[in-house]
UniProtKB/TrEMBL annotation:
<dbReference type="InterPro" id="IPR000847">
    <property type="entry name" value="LysR_HTH_N"/>
</dbReference>
<protein>
    <recommendedName>
        <fullName>HTH lysR-type domain-containing protein</fullName>
    </recommendedName>
</protein>
<keyword id="KW-0805">Transcription regulation</keyword>
<dbReference type="InterPro" id="IPR036390">
    <property type="entry name" value="WH_DNA-bd_sf"/>
</dbReference>
<dbReference type="InterPro" id="IPR005119">
    <property type="entry name" value="LysR_subst-bd"/>
</dbReference>
<dbReference type="GO" id="GO:0003677">
    <property type="term" value="F:DNA binding"/>
</dbReference>
<dbReference type="Pfam" id="PF03466">
    <property type="entry name" value="LysR_substrate"/>
</dbReference>
<comment type="similarity">
    <text>Belongs to the LysR transcriptional regulatory family.</text>
</comment>
<keyword id="KW-0804">Transcription</keyword>
<dbReference type="InterPro" id="IPR036388">
    <property type="entry name" value="WH-like_DNA-bd_sf"/>
</dbReference>
<dbReference type="GO" id="GO:0032993">
    <property type="term" value="C:protein-DNA complex"/>
</dbReference>
<dbReference type="Pfam" id="PF00126">
    <property type="entry name" value="HTH_1"/>
</dbReference>
<dbReference type="GO" id="GO:0003700">
    <property type="term" value="F:DNA-binding transcription factor activity"/>
</dbReference>
<feature type="domain" description="HTH lysR-type">
    <location>
        <begin position="1"/>
        <end position="58"/>
    </location>
</feature>
<keyword id="KW-0238">DNA-binding</keyword>
Length: 291
């Protein structure tokens, strides 16, 4: 069996959206669909229930997901080990948070790969904390992540996309009647946030803003994946705080978002170590900023 099929299954399970998962994997939706169907055929069972506009895991899909994640991680480690064998080509090593596709970066990276056949590109999906560890130990050339909490003394920050956090809620929630909400109002609501394991920036950013105002938020749950948070918010009175760019990409019926008053903006950025001048990364930075 082709082990990469489990990698595609894991990605689709994470995003619960063929379009987003396909973009993250550099595939067309039809190609991803064929790979998922191939895995289902080889396992002789359906892994997803396909609705007209959404998908969900079957019980069998839920059962094999932990094993698929393990296989996928091993598969990625194998690819990373082989990345050094470049046949004389330059090697570009990038660590990127899993929200890369939400910020429109996949198209620019795909074009770079197409226009630079002499460069092998190795992209490793991480959270921001792990990414900085890889950058500090020279295991990657650059990180693509949120830069607000990154020191300018040790790193170069190249802002790519500006964003802001918004309050995401059921369309029937009382706060949905307002154009904007305040942190004081959110402090009285049950909140569902992205887990620190998936991306620590979001938790640290929003809790820091609450702390500045001496507000103790009511955290009901932490969701590992956006799809899980979306389901909780849609089916309850809980509110989530998510990046606007992410919310715009996955917003659907029954869910609305509202600006949060006085919350600072932040940037999705490309980050390198200070004075890092490896030619392949300098060329990549110039290319991405122009595309």
């Amino acid at each position: 069996m082709d082990l990469s099929l489990f990698y595609y299954f894991t990605a689709l399970s994470k995003y619960m959206n063929f379009s987003t998962a396909a973009e993250e994997l550099y595939l067309s939706q039809s190609s991803l669909s064929k790979r998922i169907k191939s895995l289902e055929t080889k396992l002789d069972m359906e892994l997803f229930i396909r609705h007209p506009r959404t998908i969900e895991l079957t019980e069998a899909g839920k059962a094999i997901l932990p094993y698929a994640v393990h296989i996928s991680n091993e598969y990625e480690m194998m690819k990373e080990a082989l990345a050094g064998y470049t046949d004389g080509r330059s090697l570009l090593r990038i660590a990127a948070i899993s929200f890369l596709s939400y910020y429109g970066m996949m198209n620019g990276i795909s074009l770079y790969i197409k226009d630079n056949p002499g460069v092998n590109v190795n992209i490793k999906e991480i959270n921001s904390q792990h990414g900085m560890e890889l950058l500090d130990t020279d295991r990657v050339d650059a990180c693509m992540m949120f830069s607000k909490l990154v020191s300018t003394d040790k790193y170069n920050k190249y802002p790519l996309v500006k964003d802001e956090m918004v309050a995401v809620m059921n369309e029937n929630h009382p706060l949905a009647m307002r154009d904007t909400v305040t942190l004081e109002q959110l402090g009285n609501q049950e909140l569902v946030l992205i887990s620190e394991r998936d991306e620590p920036f979001f938790k640290n950013f929003i809790l820091e803003e609450f702390q500045k105002r001496d507000i103790t938020p009511k955290i009901r749950a932490y969701g590992v994946w956006i799809s899980a948070i979306w389901t909780i918010v849609k089916q309850s009175s809980s509110i989530s705080v998510l990046p606007k760019k992410v919310t715009e990409r996955i917003a659907g019926t029954g869910i609305v978002y509202r600006r949060i008053h006085e919350l600072p903006e932040f940037h999705f950025s490309l980050i390198t170590k200070y004075d890092y001048n490896k030619k392949v990364i300098v060329d990549f930075i110039r290319y991405i900023k122009n595309h």
